Amino acid sequence: MLDVLVIGGGPAGYTSAIYAARAGYKVKLITGNQDGGQLTITSMIENYPGFANPISGIQLMSQMREQSEHVGVEIIYDIIVSTNFLNYPFNCIGESGTVYESKSVIVATGANAKWLGLDSEKKYMNHGVSACATCDGFFFKNKIVAVIGGGNTAVEEAIYLTNFASKVFLIHRRDKLRAEKFMQQRLFNSPKIEVLWNSIVTEILGDGSKVNGLMLKKDEGQCKKLSLDGVFVAIGHAPATKIFENQLKLDEQGYIIVDGTKTSVDGIFAAGDVCDSIYRQAIVSAGQGCKAAIDADKFLSRL
């Protein structure tokens, strides 16, 4: 019987596990299918406090994992495939067949960026292809970049990138944006941004080591090559909450609804991108992980 079961191996998961273990609880962390979360596909990080020099996402998460082990967290490389939060104590079943029984659970399964699904996209991931302008925009000072998408996220990223890039193309497959009107107006007012309507990216071009262009297909069928230095895919995120359907209350987008970090089930807490559709930053997830552990401590103290 565990005191705290943490599901998810990103910044929220590891931070909550560290805090819970230091509070004297028996803690296990289930990594999921991507130990380290989305940071493992982030090349260099310069905005996480405590590191004077840039650090790779893999290095940062490796240090979090080592710190967790140092304070007594048991890390299990497994994937939770089903949960029972309707009965107490709670139990979760791993892909390995192992049943994890716990007095409290912290859900930190995160959210995954939606990608175009191109082979060339995978090839140049972290070599000019990104899904996070606030993470990687700094590396494109005075460069030409493109943002793919037409919603609020795409427009926000395009506007943000004007702080660094010399030119920003917003590529949208339709003839109008889905973003809110006031954001669209900001976009259209920027002299650095050019919108390419009715355009679909068919291939990301590069020299083998980094991106140097895109191949676009227009509605009329003609193809066009666009020279640039970076590509930001902003077609949305999907929270990893499928196994929690009918167990926890979710919003229309599938994110876990929380009050602070408390979910609809007493004793189940959530932190990080799994319940945050706005910020999607490692430091925010880590802070929420801390809060989730403190909330779990208060819950356990009442038992």
Q: Would you mind describing this structure in some detail?
A:
- The chain is an alpha/beta fold and 303 residues long.
- The protein is built from 7 helices and 17 strands.
- It has helices at residues 11-22, 57-70, 119-123, 133-136, 152-161, 181-189, 282-302, and strands at 2-7, 27-30, 74-76, 80-84, 90-94, 99-107, 111-113, 129-130, 144-148, 167-171, 193-196, 199-206, 211-218, 223-227, 230-233, 237-239, 268-270.
- Strands 1, 2, 3, 4, 5, 6 and 17 form a 7-stranded mixed β-sheet that branches.
- Helix 1 (11-22) packs parallel to helix 2 (57-70) and helix 1 (11-22) runs parallel beside helix 7 (282-302).
- The radius of gyration is 21 Å and the shape is elongated.
- The mean pLDDT is 95.
Helices, strands, pairings?
Layout: E1 2-7, H1 11-22, E2 27-30, H2 57-70, E3 74-76, E4 80-84, E5 90-94, E6 99-107, E7 111-113, H3 119-123, E8 129-130, H4 133-136, E9 144-148, H5 152-161, E10 167-171, H6 181-189, E11 193-196, E12 199-206, E13 211-218, E14 223-227, E15 230-233, E16 237-239, E17 268-270, H7 282-302
Parallel strand pairs: 1-2, 1-6, 2-3, 6-17, 8-15, 9-10, 9-15, 10-11
Antiparallel strand pairs: 4-5, 5-6, 7-16, 12-13, 13-14
Helix pairs in contact: 1-2, 1-7, 5-6
